[in-house]
Design a protein that fits this description.
DUF2750; 114 residues; two-stranded antiparallel ribbon; DUF2750 domain-containing protein; 46% helix; 4 helices; 5 strands; Trna Endonuclease, Chain: A, domain 1; globular; alpha+beta
Length: 114
Amino acid sequence: MSQSGSQAAAFFRDFRQSRVVWLVRDDDASPAPLSADGTRSLPFWSTSARARRAAKIWGHGLRVESMPLDTWRDRDLPDAAREGYKIGINWSGQRLVGWSFTPREVLNRLAAAD
């Protein structure tokens, strides 16, 4: 399994225990980097430590926040779908890279993991 694959698997495993997802943001929004295919991804992490590492790498005053899984699933993922975003899962490394899924794919994986 690739590094990105193992990070994605860890995300879906970790959330079952904590029922929380983690994000980084400033006062305005969360970063939504542009990918090579022209889509933007909103990144989320399965632990506070992973999100803190991302905030440190990106800098710019980003802070770490948690969100209950139910809120993320019922509100944020549908909003991301309407706005055309993908969802980055447990991006890691010095360049914060990893897999991104459509919100529908994330919802399907969440349902399969429950």
